[in-house]
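Internal tracking record. Fields below are filled automatically when a chain is submitted to the structure queue. Please do not edit lines marked as system-generated. If the sequence contains nonstandard residues, flag them in the REMARKS field before resubmitting.
Queue: standard
Priority: normal
Entity type: single polypeptide chain
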Amino acid sequence: MHLRVLHSLSFIDDPTRILRAVRFEQRLKFEIEPRTEALIPPALAMLGRITGERVRNELNLLLNEPLPEEGFLSLAKRGALKAIHPALRFDENTADLFRRARAIDVPEGCIVVIPDIYWHLLAISLTPEEADSMCERLRIPRAMQTSVPQTARLSDELRRLIDSLASPSLITRTLETYAVDALLAHFIRAEPESPERIMITGFLSTWRHVKPTIDGHRLIELGLKPGPCFREILDRLRAARLDGEIRDDESEWALLQTWLKSGICDDDIQ
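SYSTEM-GENERATED OUTPUT FOLLOWS
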């Protein structure tokens, strides 16, 4: 079976029909007939004039298909993705990431919203500048305006943490500034026993949940007032827990007493 347009200016009148044609081509297992196929290249430039919202809505519909990577490969082959935005690239490597996303077991406590994670996987091989530009062009919703570009920025951050043999506390302090979806995109891309996968798993499943037993209320009871040192104590106690310097509540309390006796917060005693 073939898909065909009704008239020769169909794609010129509405270039988003190119995206719909490919979506239905993949869903129905039809082929775009040769005459209709020949009408696509002259209309590609018009895709750059369509509002970001309209284009994004069409791409979202494709991302909600059972096998969206097939449609994206088809769009990339026809030059449609590049016509939408130069940074919007798709190849077999990205297609494989889409397949992994549907099959992978993520760290405990994490939930993957498949269409959302696809957007992050689209950004994973971009530069931060390209990711920002793509989000602006497609008017990515506010909920992902930060997390999608973060995915691009995270590549260098993970490499730096691995190269420096960073401690769990430093890893946690760094990764907790990133959205979970950005981290999950890199988890999906990383090989099972790779340092990246191990580090992200440790953070998402365990380290981000670690807190000292002593909290702000207890510090106030000890005569401390909220302030820079107040925050520093809680951060240092958490880091000590993460790095294994504290193994139980007693050692946490003993460490705090040592700090207080050394005058760590003399200026903050009420």
